Amino acid sequence: MNISKNVVLIDDGGANFTSVTAGLEQLGVNAPITRDARQIQAADLVILPGVGAAGYSMKHLRDNGLVDVICGLKQPVLGICLGQQLLCESSSEDNAKCLGIIPVKVKKLENIRIIPHMGWNNLTEIADDPLLEGFSTEDNFYFVHSFAPEVDSRWTIGVCDYGVKFSAIIRKDNFYGVQFHPEKSGKVGARLLANFLRLKC
Amino acid sequence: MLKVRIIPCLDVKDGKVVKGVQFKAHEVVGDILGLAERYSDEGADELVFYDITASADRRKVDYNWIKQIASQINIPFCVAGGIRSIADAAKILENGADKISINSPALENPDIISEMSVRFGKQCVVVGIDSFERNGRYMVHQYTGDTEKTINTGRDTFEWAKEAVERGAGEIVLNCMNMDGVRNGYDLPQLAKLTAVVDVPVVASGGAGTMTHFQDVFEKTGVTGALAATVFHKKQINIGELKAFLKDKGLQVRR
Questions:
Q1: Does residue B51 carry a catalytic annotation?
Q2: What is the DSSP string of A127-176?
Q3: How many whole angstroms separate alpha carbon A146 and alpha carbon B198?
Q4: Is the alpha carbon torsion for B143, B145, B150, B156 positive or negative?
Q5: Which domain covers residue B102, as residue numbers?
Q6: Chain A contact present for B162, CB below 8 A
Q7: Are the C-beta atoms of residues B100 and B124 closer than 8 Å to each other?
Q8: pLDDT confidence of residue B31
Q9: Could you give the percent of chain A with pLDDT greater than 70?
């Protein structure tokens, strides 16, 4: 693993960054948590984690002047869970306007009896993408969420089916989002994080 | 498809894994990290740590063990026991736990469920319910850590579960006390009834003795997870073998 890369985590007001930083440390990467625009812009790779509610996190990003900073990033960016949802256009959670980088809407999982979608699930469709190199529909990831981006063939590169299909992974240019928690998805998740760390700046 | 979850539960006291009845002599069964790693390697889908450290002042409790687990284990884990306030929960989550489970404090002050749910998100908030059947009625019990202090709260198990979910619980762990420690199987009628009345994930607890018991609880009730302690600690059931067995029976498991 190339550990010389400079990776940062954007502080979006969430309560728990420990598992993401720990997951990266297990891959030999020490990623600081920051809301400093210059530090974020200077990084080789940027991770937008996120546990909590969309409205609260967007307010936190706006209050810290980070909306334009994130939208202007040219290096690979990975949004995790709520972080993926923040990359989208809007979320029906809190009726939040999100960053609008990837033009899809985040909706509550509908007509599903058990919410949150909590536990290990596989992807039913996987696109050919460097982030997903080596993955198959047999691999399971850990999900815990009640909202998700809809499926849009232009941007969805991984589909999950929980009675309703949703975007488990989206990509537009240098922006990636995953609905599951790779840092909590055992060896499979570690492989995905390793693929991300290998993306070209 | 969503996989069933196999969840070993470890009792922790002063940062060590113990077994034994609370307030009696505890036998240290092992190093917490060693056991957590063993279960993770065997294929556990999630871990629960039940903290039975006795303390008059929770602020002085050392949560370094939580941080150590978070740095070594990359599957989700929940911490239960002794969480009485938002501050306790925040400290546990900041140290790297994915969920917190509350039981007696939620009964004392049900508002704490909603407060935690708003603050941390419902996916973090698990409500544990200790339920005991008497004359065909399932009643919620409290302070079950100490047999001399255990009381029947007078609350109906299903009504309390529904209230907890309305208040923002993202998951219910139902500990069926009649079955606990007996290893005659999970309480299937009770779990089936609970999963029919709540719309959040339910985890079965109490009664696992054989691999077939796990098969039964997933086939005959709507639970999405099954928790057990003794059968795993005593190596009576290996989690990898259990999952192979369940897969063979046609259940969806993570391999």
A1: no
A2: ---GGGTT--TT-EEEEEESEEEPP-TTTEEEEEESSSEEEEEEEETTEE
A3: 15
A4: positive
A5: 5-248
A6: no
A7: yes
A8: 84
A9: 96
Q: Is A118 on the interface with B (CB under 8 A)?
A: yes
What would you measure as the largest C-alpha separation in chain B, in angstroms? Answer: 49
- The fold adopted by the segment(s) A7-198 is Rossmann fold (3.40.50)
CATH number at residue B88: 3.20.20.70
Q: Nearest CA to CA, how far is A61 from chain B (Å)? A: 18
Residue B206 domain-assigned (yes or no): yes
pLDDT tens for each residue of B86-121? 999 999 998 999 999 999 999 999 999 999 998 888
Instruction: Give the position of tokens 């007001």.
Output: A13
- Which pLDDT value is given to residue A89? 97
Q: What pTM was computed for the model?
A: 0.94
| Chain B 228-247, residues with CB within 8 Å of chain A CB atoms | none
What pLDDT, in 10s, does the model give residues B21-60?
434 556 676 788 999 999 999 999 999 999 887 655 566 6
- What ipTM was assigned to the predicted interfaces of this complex? 0.92
Q: Are A132 and A195 in contact (CB under 8 A)?
A: yes
B199 and A114 within 8 Å at the Cβ level: the answer is yes
Contact B123, B174 (CB under 8 A): no
Q: Is residue B255 part of a domain?
A: no
